[in-house]
Structure formats: C-alpha cells, structure tokens
Amino acid sequence: MDAAFTAEQDEIRRTLRDLLTRHAGPGEIRAAVRTAEGHAPALWRRLAQGLGLPGLALPEEYGGAGCTPTELALACEETGRALLPSPLLATAVLAAPLITALGTPSQRAGLLPRIADGTLTAALAVPGGSMAAALGLTGDNRSAPWSGGGRAGGVQARHGDGGWRLYGEADRVLDGHSAGLLLVAAHTGGYPRSRTLLFLVPTESHVPAEVSGGAPTEVPTDAPTRTQGLTRTRLTSLDETRPLARVELRDTPAALLGTDADTADVCGALAATGRTAAAALAAEAVGAAAGALERTVTYVKEREQFGRAIGSFQAVKHRLADLYVRVEAARSAAYYAAWDPAAGPLALAQALETARTVAGEAVQLHGGIGFTWEHEAHLYVKRAAADELLFGPVHRLRDHAAVRAGLFGDVSSRALAHEAAV
Hints:
The protein has helices at residues 7-23, 26-33, 41-51, 69-81, 88-102, 105-116, 131-134, 266-302, 314-339, 344-365, 377-391, 394-405, 412-421, and strands at 122-125, 155-160, 163-174, 181-188, 195-202, 224-227, 230-234, 244-256, 304-305, 308-309. By secondary structure, the protein is of the alpha+beta class.
C-alpha cells in the first residue's frame, strides 16, 4: 500500500482550499446560511462547473471525473475546514451512489449527468430522521425498524393503476428543503412481504433566485414549499451550515428507483453507501477540527496577557500539542477509511470525537470572545454536536463496529435484538 497522495490528489486539495479561502470566509458563510437555499448558489455553481466537485466519484460515462472515494474525501476535508454549507454531502456522498447502485440505465443516464454538472441536487429522506440506522452505521439496517415497518411514523408506498404513491413524513432531511430530487425510503408490501424500497420524487424549487447585485434573498427558515402532495419545511437546526427539513408526503406520486421491487437489495445498497459516506464524513470532521485548531493557534499567538502572548505559556502549548495529536490521528484514520471503506464507521467515530474535543478546547482557549455569536469558534462546536446527533452517536458507531468484528464473541443475535428494541 502506497500511502502517498498523487499529484492529482494534491492539486484537488490545493485548488479547492485556495478557492474556499477567497470565497468562503466567515462572513460569506454567515450570509450563505441565511439564504433560501441554505448555501451560496453562485459558489456551488463554481464548485460544480469549474472544479467538477459533485462528479468527482461518478463514472466518466455519466459526466463525472471517474475518481475514487479518496478524492471525494479530500474534497470533503477542505469543505469541512471552511464549514462550507453546500449540497455536496447530500447529493454526491449520499444520493448519487444509491442512484448508481440501484437505478435503471435510463434513470442513471437521466440523473447522474445533471448531478455531475451541479444543475441537479438531491437529498435522501428516511423516516424518523434515523439516517445513521438507515445507512447501517449504528446497527444492522435489515433488522432495525428505522423504516417504520408499517407502523405510524414511517413512509408507506402503495402501488395502483396510477403508479406508486407515498404517504407519511421524514424529519431531519439534509438539504431536503431545496433539493431538486428526493430519494425517499418507504415501506411497502404489508406484513407477509414487508420490505423497504427507494423512490424518486422530483420537486419544484419555489426558492427565490438571487436578486440583482449578488445580494442573497433572505426568507424565514420555516417557510414551507409545496408541490403535488409534497410539503417541505426547513427546520431550525442546531448547525445552520447543515440545513435540515421536514418532508411530508400525502398521496405523492413517485417512481421506483430500479425496476424490480421484489429483488432490489435496498438495505445492502444503503449499507454500502453508509460505509463510503462514513469515510467522507470522517474527512469532513477532521477538516473542521483542523480549521478550529488553526484559528486557535493564530489567536493564542496574538492575544497577550502579562505582557506576552498566551501561546507562549507552557500550559497552553501542552493543550495545543494534545489537540494536534488528536487531529493527526483522526486524519490518518479518515484517509485509511477512504482507501478501505470497511473502516469508515470507526474512522467516523474517531473523527467526530476529535471534532467535539477540539471545538470545545477552541472555545476555552479563545476565552470570553469564544462564547459570543460574533465569533466563529462556536460554529465549530455546533457542527461537531450536530454531526454526532445526525450520524452517531460515537459510542453506537463503535459498538456496532465491534459487534460486526466479533470482538464480543457470539453475541450478534443479542446485539441485533437490542438494536431493534432501541
């Protein structure tokens, strides 16, 4: 195994970092999250059409760059460093691999090129906001009742003469308020043939365009958008850079992702996507931790007490050294997971824990200013906390990885029963 990055991978990292340094500073991030889209559309178009970011890991036949998950992880590390709000995670990391794995040739040909060039964004909607369970990160997604299983709170699919219709709702859908396409996980078949399938629900945008002069249009975060039995409401989220939405479906027409509802291995595709997504998320969390650490180091070099910079105090140096070791260890784990996705959940657990620790220490070392809304230090705390709520928690990620590895002996059946009960 050659752990060194190629010249092309280094160029991807350098080009993206330079662009985000110029166009995604703290001021631009704060402005972007207050737009209707929850991100800066002009910057997204530049990242998509100029750098081909959403198509990095897509096959060349669909307009992608044909790169590996490693390149996508490197890109996510840089977007995490800047805390960039963008559709990259929801579209390229979660939705695109599912369309590639399960879609028909016509579905792939019709959707993936538009995803690659950035003209189409997508979001994965699962019932109950149970993203980690659906992706198989914290439990076996074949046995855990994350899809509702016919009970209240799930999304139900019914097939009739007019095609498929969806009923129910999904909470905490990442970028669900603005995505042009929803991938909805729904339960169908009743008790005898109970199964979970994925459906395509195209949406109409209803999102105000930017006004002349480049100033973004601000809208209330809870303003709903509706189309053909579909209601999407942007939620007030802990981390503004991770816009979440509630998706309500009432007799909503949908198309089955794939052709055969009886043989589609949806849970397998979700678990495979979860492993690669965990590697990208781990890299993104490492980038956020590194960004918080870099800002803290810069601050302690400038802030003076007793006539000297506080960074010269031995206690501060020790704390920063410990944080640096944590970040580098988590980065190594994330890079390994990009090479071997099977290690993704463990790398994600380490990266989320590191991001939480570094962000907390960053606030402490910034002193009183670190607690204010005007300073960006608290944004890293929110990102770390929100990501663990959405894709963790850390102890569940590690517990499931240990069960799968057989570290606790023959207890898999008991563990899976416990996960299903939880």
